[in-house]
Amino acid sequence: MKHLKFFIFLCILTFTVSCGQQKRYIQYKVKKGETMSQIAQKLNMKTEKLLRLNPDVVGEPKPNTFLVVPEQKLNNLKKPTKKEVIEEKLDTISNKVIIDKDSTVIENVFKNFEVYEIKKGDTFYNIEKRFGVNRQELLVLNPELKEGLKLGMVLKIKEIIPEIIDEDEYEDYIDFNKDLKVALLLPLKTYKYQVDTLTLKQIFAKDAALLNIATDFYLGAELAVDSLRNKGVNIDLSVFDTGERGANNLGDIIYDKNLNDNDVVIGPFYSDEAQTIASSVNIPVVFPVYSKNQSSFANRNIIKTSPDKKMFRDVLTSYIKDNMVDGNIVIVSDNSFENLQASNTMQASLQFSTNALINIITPQDGYIEKSRIINLLQSNTKNWVILTSNDQLLVSDAINSLISLPEETTVKVFATDKSNVFEKIDNNKLAKIGFTYVSDEFSDTSSFEAISFNGQYLKKNKALPSYYATKGFDITYDILMRLASGKKLEDTFSEGFSKRVETKFDYRDSDRVPENKGVFIIQYNQDLTLTRLK
Asked: Do the Cβ atoms of 278 and 309 come closer than 8 Å?
């Protein structure tokens, strides 16, 4: 009887040790020319098992990348030196992962993914509920799930978005011996009112028709001036009404108001008027809005605060190049010459830099059938759809076609700009497809800057700031803060980018005319929050 008990104890001990060993993994650094089958043979394991541990490897692994392999297999290959034991939490299980300190490895075995080890009783349903992912997303990251859940299987749950570290940020500095004189030129059209008896603020409050882009911009700019004055900057602000477009107001302002006596001119809003002002003065002229004509600006003293839309496409293309090595890309375009040209340019650029399959799809008889889009998608792989059109019907149909897909097919949708057409689409739909877009604004409502600005604006104007009110603040504050340093404005541009409430200003590497290149890449999350990816 004693012998029987001892035998049972040995069996339990052997089983426990065996199970414990199955949970130990280590990274293997791929050498140039190695294939998955060669690595599996070297480690004395089946190629299929190596592939199951590394489902993100499509084709052959690239040199200097890392594969997850059983620790015991690698230990049999070579005896490691100087080992470091790292306690790594995978869900609620503490796993000891042994890493060779002599190899160049990252801290975690699955550095780019949140992972989970399958336990007894786990189902797709409870995994989906626990981690907020659906079955299709799990299948893309873990193709082996087609065979079902297996005890001890390590799943990739979701990609970990790395923290964005911004470098070369401009450092605000104030020279308190520097006084600033600023001219603000806006199309307020106050000639319609009795401006000799009313202040601007009273005019704005009196007639709601004036609460437009210009007035909102003014209220934001005024708050920026107040904020800098509170910091000790002496600012003399003059506001001029440019009136109707093409009127004589502009000439009167140029010659009667001595604009050259100012340190900077902010405005006007019309591109032709901005060029007229810039040609008539030798001080910086800040163009505060976006215009399709801004690419033709030739005066070196004009500062373009809004990025060109072509740059939005370039930034998105660059992001996709960096994040899509293999996979499937579908570009959805309308039949306009401009968008077709942009789509073809993007396709050529991506084909040169990635191994992804790339197709362009356009409407037939004015629309795109759902089956045409679905047939271009692939199961168990990355499917990224890029919308280059701003046609309301086309964009709506494309998104409706993509929110309900076969189980093993997932998709992520991109756009070069979140234009007005997306404002009419349910945010829940955008969140479901992980809608990602390029923007010249990003609001972190929890940041000190946003909380402070919104609170001050609300207190002063009895309303929350609009988009243009925030732009008025950001542009005015940034330009005046840089001038308050006592340096030339163009010299501060080379010292780095700056971020204000919602806007990033980066004028570095401009050609003749200073142009802001500060944009963000923003992603919708399942909970309807937004994440800044870049």
From this structure: no
